[in-house]
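Please describe what follows:
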Amino acid sequence: MASSWKSLPGAKAYRVLESGPTILLSTRNRAGRADLMTVGFHMVISHEGVLGAVVSPGDFSQASLAETGECVIGVPGVDLAEKVVDIGNCSGYDVDKFE
């Protein structure tokens, strides 16, 4: 009988473990500058709508989150997949992602 176990390199294992949708996290700082961030690592923490997401201190959005404590979460459809990748491949420090 053949083994059904497959070995995956660590860099690809997350694809099996992380099955939720990629989300877009939108922020606006007090000066009015908006940003959009692609987030692949997140989880529902409670049924009351508490969500955990990985937002690095180096991300432009993190400063706005720390400043205001507010964000909007969007779940993009597959028709926006290319845009979601593009959003994730640039920094809000350099680009106005809403343009």
User: Anything to note?
Assistant: The helical segments are 10-17, 60-68, 81-88. The CA atoms of residues 82 and 96 lie 17 Å apart. The first strand starts at residue 23 and ends at 28. The radius of gyration is 16 Å.
